[in-house]
Specification:
heterodimer; A: mainly alpha; three-stranded antiparallel sheet; 13 helices; B: mainly alpha
Chain lengths: ~400, ~170
C-alpha cells in the first residue's frame, strides 16, 4: 500500500512538474477575467461556475448556448419532444417559460424576469417563509444584465415537461472527455496491434503514460482486490478510472467544466458500479447478505437490514465522495479568487490589488492540491469499485469484516 | 441565496442521468472492444514474451554451462586419447624400427652369405677354368715340343722352364 501510494505520488509530482506549470497561469487569467466580468455585473458567484448550465462560458461574458431538448405532455395527453437551439429560443417560442419555483432561476431578460418574479411572488404568497428568499432572489436577478441562468428549469405553457433531456454543460464536457479518450485510446490500441508495445517496449510519451495507468489499474487495483476474476472486470475499472481522471483534470483547464463535480454524473457512475457488483455476486455473497455466517440466529434479523443498507450506502458514498471532492476544490479556488473583488469592494482598489498576490498564491496552492485530488479521487473511486466487486465475486473466505471497515 | 444555490448543485437531473448513462455504457462497450481488449492482450503477450525470454535465457545459460562442461570433459578426454595415441604410436614406431633393423641386418647377412657363396662359386669356376687352361697349355706345350722335335737337352730345359713357370703361377 505504501509503495503503491508512493508510486502514485511520484507520478503526480512528475505530471505536475511537466504539464501543469503553464496551465496555472492561464487558469489564473481565466478565472480572473471571468470574475472581473461578473464583478461588473455586481455578482460573483462561485457556485454558478461550478454548477451545471445551459451554456459554455468563455471570459468577458462570452457564452455559447447549448441546445434544449424537452419531452412534454400536452394538455390533451399527447407526448412530444421539443428541440430548441438555446434556452432563449425556447422561451421566445412562447411555449416555455422559466420555472419560478426553481432556485437557480435568475431571469432571461427583463420581461421574463418580471414574469418569473411575479410567479415567484404568487407562489410565495402560499408559503410565507419563502417570501424573503424570493425577494433576495429578485434582487440578485436584477443585478444580472445579461441573465446568467444556470440549469434553468423550463415550464411548458400547454402542459407539463415530462423530462428535460437538454444538452447541459456538464454533459457536453463528459462527452468531450469520452470522445477524447476514445480517440486517444483506440489510436493506442492500434499502435499495440501494430506491434509497438507488444513486441517491443512502448514508444513515446502518450503510450508510456497510458500504459503506466493501465498497468496501475490492472496490477494495483483490479488484481489485488478481485483476484482470479480480475480480467473480466478490468475493462470496466479502466474505463471508469480513465473517465474520472480525465474529467477531473479537465476541470483544471480554463473555460472547461468538470462533469465529475455533478452529483448526477457521479451517482450514475456509482450506480454502474452497484450494478456490476450485484452481477458479480456469487452465491456466498447473497447468502452473506441474508445473514452473515457465524452470527447467532437471534441477532441475524438485526443484521439483515444493516447488510441491505450497506448495499446502498457503498455506492452512495462513492457518488458523494467524488462529487464533493471535485465541487469543493473548485468552489474554494473560485472563492479565493473572489476575495480579490470582495477586498476591492470593501477597502478600495489599492487593498484589493495589494492583497491579490496573497489570494493568487493561495489559489495556486489549492490548484496543486486539486491536481492531487483529481488523481486521488479517480484512484479511490476505481479502487473502491474494485473492492466492492471483489467482495461480491469472492468465493468464500472470512475477511469481510475487515474490508467493510475499510470501505 | 446561498442555500438555494447549494441546493441546485445537489438536485438530481434525470435528463443528464439518462444521457450520461446511455453514452457512458456505449463508451465503456466501445473501449472494451476497441481499446482495452487489444491493449491488455498486447501487454499480456509482451509480459508472457518477457517471461519466456527470461526463462529461455536461463535455459540457454544452463545449456551453455552444460556445453562448456561437456566441452571441457571432451577436451580432457581428447587430450588423454591423443596422449595414448602418441604413446602407442611411439611404441609401434619403436617396434617397427627394431623390426626394420632386424630385417636389414638379416638381409645384410643374407647378402653377405650370397656374396660369399658367389665368391666361392666364382673361385671354383676360376679354378676349373685355370685347370682347363693349364691342361690346354700343357697340351699346347707338348704339341710344340712334339712339333719342333727337340733334342733331349732342349727338351729337358723346356720342361724345366715350364714347370718353373707353373710354380710361379
Amino acid at each position: 500500500m505504501t509503495t503503491l501510494s508512493g508510486r502514485a505520488l511520484l507520478l503526480l509530482a512528475m505530471l505536475f512538474a511537466f504539464g501543469a506549470g503553464p496551465a496555472f497561469a492561464q487558469e489564473q487569467d481565466a478565472h480572473g477575467e471571468a470574475a472581473d466580468a461578473d464583478h461588473e455585473e455586481g455578482v460573483f458567484d462561485p457556485v454558478h461556475h461550478v454548477g451545471n448550465g445551459d451554456a459554455v462560458e468563455f471570459f468577458l461574458g462570452i457564452e455559447i448556448p447549448l441546445p434544449r431538448i424537452l419531452i412534454v405532455r400536452n394538455n390533451d395527453g399527447s407526448i412530444a419532444p421539443k428541440f430548441y437551439a438555446s434556452t432563449h429560443s425556447a422561451i421566445e417560442s412562447g411555449d416555455f417559460h422559466l420555472a419560478p419555483e426553481h432556485p437557480a432561476v435568475k431571469g432571461i431578460d427583463e420581461e421574463e424576469m418580471l414574469d418569473s418574479v411575479e410567479a415567484a411572488d404568487s407562489h410565495d404568497a402560499a408559503v410565507a417563509d419563502d417570501a424573503h428568499a424570493a425577494d433576495e432572489h429578485a434582487d440578485g436577478a436584477a443585478g444580472d444584465e445579461e441573465g446568467v441562468e444556470h440549469e434553468p428549469v423550463l415550464s411548458y405553457a400547454n402542459g407539463e415537461v415530462l423530462m428535460d433531456l437538454s444538452i447541459t454543460r456538464h454533459l457536453l464536457f463528459a462527452w468531450i472527455v469520452m470522445v477524447l479518450l476514445y480517440v486517444v485510446l483506440t489510436r493506442m490500441a492500434r499502435k499495440y496491434q501494430q506491434g509497438v508495445g507488444r513486441e517491443s517496449a512502448p514508444k513515446g510519451k502518450t503510450q508510456n503514460m497510458i500504459e503506466t495507468f493501465v498497468l496501475f489499474v490492472r496490477d494495483d487495483i483490479a488484481r489485488p482486490n478481485i483476484g482470479d476474476k480480475a480480467p473480466k472486470y478490468t475493462p470496466y475499472l479502466l474505463s471508469v478510472f480513465f473517465f474520472i481522471l480525465t474529467a477531473n483534470l479537465f476541470g483544471l483547464l480554463p473555460f472547461s467544466a468538470t462533469s465529475t463535480s455533478n452529483i448526477t454524473v457521479t451517482a450514475t457512475l456509482a450506480i454502474l458500479t452497484f450494478i456490476v457488483t450485484q452481477l458479480a455476486g456469487t452465491k456466498d455473497y447473497w447468502k452473506h447478505l441474508a445473514g452473515p455466517p457465524g452470527v447467532p440466529l437471534l441477532v441475524r434479523p438485526l443484521l439483515i437490514p444493516v447488510e441491505i443498507l450497506g448495499l446502498f450506502t457503498k455506492p452512495f458514498a462513492l457518488a458523494v465522495r467524488l462529487f464533493a471532492n471535485m465541487t469543493a476544490g473548485h468552489i474554494v479556488i473560485l472563492s479565493l479568487i473572489g476575495l480579490i473583488f470582495t477586498f476591492t469592494e470593501a477597502y478600495g482598489p489599492a487593498v484589493g490589488t495589494g492583497t491579490s498576490v496573497v489570494w493568487v498564491a493561495f489559489t495556486l496552492f489549492i490548484l496543486c492540491l486539486e491536481l492531487l485530488v483529481a488523481f486521488l479521487q479517480a484512484y479511490i473511486f476505481t479502487m473502491l469499485s474494485a473492492l466492492f466487486i471483489g467482495m461480491a465475486a469472492e468465493e468464500h473466505d472470512h475477511e469481510h469484516e475487515h474490508e467493510e471497515a475499510h470501505a | 441565496m446561498q442555500l438555494y444555490l447549494a441546493a441546485s448543485l445537489l438536485s438530481p437531473d434525470p435528463g443528464l442521468a439518462f444521457w450520461f448513462l446511455i453514452t457512458f455504457v456505449i463508451f465503456m462497450w466501445l473501449l472494451r472492444s476497441k481499446a482495452w481488449g487489444p491493449i491488455t492482450a498486447a501487454l499480456e503477450e509482451r509480459e508472457q514474451r518477457i517471461d519466456e525470454s527470461i526463462k529461455s535465457a536461463d535455459r540457454a545459460l544452463a545449456e551453455a554451462k552444460q556445453i562448456q562442461a561437456d566441452n571441457m570433459k571432451a577436451r580432457r578426454e581428447a587430450e588423454q586419447q591423443a596422449q595414448t595415441i602418441l604413446r602407442e604410436a611411439r611404441e609401434s614406431a619403436e617396434k617397427i624400427r627394431t623390426a626394420e633393423l632386424e630385417k636389414t641386418k638379416d638381409s645384410i647377412q643374407h647378402l653377405q652369405e650370397n656374396a660369399k657363396q658367389e665368391i666361392e662359386r666364382e673361385k671354383q669356376k676360376a679354378m676349373t677354368d685355370l685347370r682347363s687352361q693349364v691342361a690346354e697349355l700343357a697340351i699346347g706345350a707338348a704339341q710344340k715340343i712334339l712339333a719342333e722335335n727337340l733334342d733331349k737337352e732342349r727338351q729337358g730345359k723346356l720342361v724345366d722352364s715350364f714347370i718353373n713357370e707353373l710354380r710361379k703361377n
